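Re: that chain you flagged

S.,

Sorry for the slow reply, it's been a week of failed gels. I finally had a moment to sit down with the sequence you sent. For the record, here it is as I used it:
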Amino acid sequence: MSVITISRGSFSGGKMLAECLSKTLGYRCIDREVIVERAAARGVSQEELRDALQKPPTFLERIQHKKYLYLVLIQAALIEEVRTGKAVYHGNAGHLLLKGGPHILRVRIIAPLELRLKMAQDRLKFSRAEAVDYIARMDQDRKKWTQYLYGVDWGDASNYDIVLNLEFMDIAGACQTVSALARQRCFEFTPCCQAAMDDLALASRVRVELALSDATSHLEVEVSAKDGVVRILGSVSNMREVQEVRRVASAVSGIQTLDLDELVSPVRA
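Prediction finished late last night. Pasting the structure tokens below so you have them in one place:
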């Protein structure tokens, strides 16, 4: 009952692989639109959320703090979708958005450029030149997105458990390979995995409430949870902000102990 994430470039076969795995394993198939719709339920524009998942932040967005809010909402939405296991997600950086939870099966699929161009031309009715430009632009945006937000190389094979190349393998073969791997003991969704996912979900809910509250929305904090103990790490301007963090976070159900010892405020001279 694993959770599978699929990383791919545009028109590299990721959606087809996810759909095949869903049918073969009986898993729910989750795409970007499902996550966007769930995250947008908190009152944020779906269009802006899609942009947050696709495009690297502009200088203005870095100043306006929007990217942080969008990613907090997107991460929380994805965690809630996959928290019970038996799910395959084919969207941007799923393995990074779920970092800190249990060991998920991280798949990357790549395909020869000619195959990608053909799929882009067939589906979007592009000319060859348009398809080349589109794929290059999308790949570059995803590379910048993961580098800026997580400091990792999108194409680095060490970020995945398996990399599949469609140069000589078809989707059916790729699906069979991943299905067999998903059934291995190391990817079983054990009670310990469920507990880790529940901890990740609790931490994400706390971050969402802090990001949406007027009193704390300007803060960017890290939140972790373990067996009901929630720790919040970050910088604040004064003790009043610490009190606001405590007030907002304490309202989230599931917290047994709230640890703010690593929430740092300036020391007065």
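What I noticed first: Residues 181 and 187 are 8 Å apart (CA to CA).

Talk soon,
D.
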